[in-house]
Each structure stands twice: as structure tokens, then as C-alpha cells.
Description:
Elements lengths: L2 H16 L2 H8 L3 H24 L3 H42 L2 H13 L5 H21 L5 H23 L9 H15 L7 H24 L6 H7 L2 H14 L5 H25 L4
Amino acid sequence: MQDRQKGLLLTAFGVLVLSPDALVLRWLAAEAMSVLAWRGLLMAIGLGLLLAWRYRAGLPAAARRCGRTGLGCALCYCGSTIGFVQAISLAGAANTLLILSVAPLIAAALAWLFLGERLALRTLLAILICVGGVGLIVADEAPGNSLAGNAWALAAATLLAGNFTLARSKPAVDMSPALIPGALLVSLLGFLFGGTPALSPTQWAGLAFMAGVLLPLAFMLIQLGPRWISGTEVGLLLLLEVVLGPLWVWWLLGEAPSSQVLLGGALIFVTLCVHGLLGWRRVAPVG
């Protein structure tokens, strides 16, 4: 398997694992900073265990290899996580996902400015079509507007793109260990400004599974993506969450999406499939 194909598959699978995240946050319906306190702590523990299993005694060395770039990734992860959860709380899932959809554009600009990467025409077209698909989804729900929530979402999109660009700048280094201090910083800020949320035992179990199992696995895979594909393409694949989020809500909460939401989701899904297949064919071995 070619490195680019590996990057596409790992990132896509990571996004699939991440996709119930917004659903869980809506289901918990708790104050954002108090959720972040435990979400960050569980994420750090889960990712630490996962990376310890992967690297064994070599984990400290893997963490040291991240260097100052890893510190930047950690800070970007911390900021984007806080921004995402705050935006979900203030602006709703629809507005948040719409604004997060500009992350590939920001990643493309950062990669062009700092890494000298050119943006393929097919990727630019895919971004524009996907943003149109997200627009269809959001226009249908028409959530209440929140300036503060929109600002948090834009900050999350910018920092998410920054994380991918930093990881892309050191393709030979796995930046996943850098997410552990980032998650611990999220937890520290959450405990300082939030505390412990009042949740039922079932909700605690859901939070533990999402933050302690699914999030570490998802972000480890997504963080590996920029080693083999551009940060722009990683951000583009993350738009799958915009499609899958409403489907999770439909299945588990019984909120059936309208035909317009389904149309927007189908547009994004088909575009990403075509874009991925074109990229896959471009690197397929000859003969």
C-alpha cells in the first residue's frame, strides 16, 4: 500500500470513530468547561494507554521527537477542543460544523504560506462543493445566532488547521504523543473554570467511552494523516463528520433529517469519495 493511500484510510477511519462526538455533547447537555475537565483527563489517560501499547518502552523517546513542533500541536489541540465544545454549547451543532468546514481552506492557506505546498485544483473544487453541502444542512436547521459561539467555532477551525499544518511540517515524526499534554491542559483549564458536571451514571459511562476510548483512537489516527497527506486533505476528510453527525442523531435520538439535510450530506459524501478515488488512482503503483 502506498503511503498516500495509508494516510487517506487512517484519516477516514479516524473521522468515522470521531463522528459521534457532537451527538454525545448534545446528549450530555452540561456546562462546557465542566465537560472539558473530564473530557480532557479521560482523553489523556486513554491516549497514554494506547500509545504505551503501541510504543512500549519507546514512548518517552517518541514524545521527545515531537520537540517544539509537538508543543505547538499540543497548544493547537487544546485551543481547538475548547473552541469546539464552547461553540457546540453556545451556537449549536449546525453553526459550529458550518464554520469548522472552513478548516481545509485555512489549512491550505497555512500550508501555502509556511510549507510552500500547492493546492491541487481537484482539492480546491472539492472544498468549495463540500462547503456548499454544509450550507444546505445548516440553512435547513436555521439555529439561533450567537456571535460568541461563532467566534469560538472560527477559533477552533483555525487552530485545527494549525495543528495539521504543524504535523505536516515534520512528516517523519508521529505527533500523536503531543496530544497528551494538550489534553491535560484542556482538563486543567476545565477544572479551574468549570468543575465536575452533574451527570447520571449512564451519561458518565457515555462520556468515559467517548473521551477515554473513541477520542484517543480517533485523534491518534487523524494525527497520523498529515505524515502522508496534506493538512488540507485531512481537514477535507473531517467534513465527513458533518454528514455522519445528523445520521447518528437520526438513529439514536429519532430526529429524522429533512430531505435538504440528506441532500447536503449526500453531496459532501459523494464529493469526498470522488476526491479520494482520484487521489488513490494518482498514487497507484504501475503494473
